[in-house]
Amino acid sequence: MSMRGILKRVFTAEGEEPPTGFHAPLSVERPCYYIGDIHGNEKALKNLLRALETDAGRPERVELVLLGDYVDRGDNSRDVLEWLFEISRAAPGSVTMLKGNHERMLLDFLDDPAANGPFWLANGGLQTLASFGIGGLTENSGERLLVQAADTLAIALTPRVIDWLRKLPTIHRNGNLAAVHAGADPALPLELQSERTLTWGHSDFNRVPRGDGQWIIHGHTTHVHPQVIDGRIAIDTGAYHSGVLTAAFVEPDAPVRFVDSRAGGME
């Protein structure tokens, strides 16, 4: 093996691609915190928001962007959703909440529980249903139980929250930084990306750097620590199993800085 190959194996973490020549500087227009995947971990969310509130580097005016996947896998999806809905109503001009693939799966379940229920339940939907007091199902449940559960969930969510979830955007722009849930096709302009790509990702996203100088900040793919590689900023640190929820802070003419829920203390 060549020396270059040896160095690549030594200094590249498993599953992580090394930098390949993306050189565009990050250039944002305004201060902003971005929060990764919550997945029903209400405690981590509260601790992280507390940490951001007391962050020594916090400017007086700052935006907040959440990158999706508020539900599933963790135990408190209902509390997280209800809390985020109230935050979105209280601060509509300064808070943006993006749609993740788990919000998409929940909505698909409501639209066609028999067709979409088994997949959602196998990927964290059981925990979300349980947080609403809906039990007695498995991923192999029949159509009758799935339809009944969807009807009960729709009532518990309320039409206002369902409408809010349906209207969640899939992208947020700040200078040459775009926030999405999962990733983007590096061969297409951001304006041409499908909702599916932005919420589920693309096979080339972590392998091929963009050629347009556009940075992407995203969740969806779990890392032990946040990553900054080739114009991609990954901040999903697996809050539902690690307990650590991460935020990235950006502002003009400064490097990316990370804050996580451990800085907010424990309840």
Descriptive account of the structure:
By secondary structure, the chain is of the alpha/beta class. Mean pLDDT is 92; it is low at 1-17. The chain has helices at 3-11, 42-53, 77-90, 101-111, 113-131, 143-157, 159-166, 195-200, 239-242, and strands at 32-35, 63-66, 95-97, 172-174, 177-179, 215-222, 227-229, 232-236, 246-250, 257-260. Helix 4 crosses helix 5 and helix 5 (113-131) crosses helix 6. The strands form two sheets. The protein has a five-stranded mixed β-sheet, with helices on one face. Strands 4-5-6-8-7 form a five-stranded mixed β-sheet, with no helix packed on it.
Helix-strand blueprint:
Elements: H1 3-11, E1 32-35, H2 42-53, E2 63-66, H3 77-90, E3 95-97, H4 101-111, H5 113-131, H6 143-157, H7 159-166, E4 172-174, E5 177-179, H8 195-200, E6 215-222, E7 227-229, E8 232-236, H9 239-242, E9 246-250, E10 257-260
Parallel strand pairs: 1-2, 2-3, 5-6, 6-8
Antiparallel strand pairs: 1-9, 4-5, 7-8, 9-10
Helix pairs in contact: 4-5, 5-6
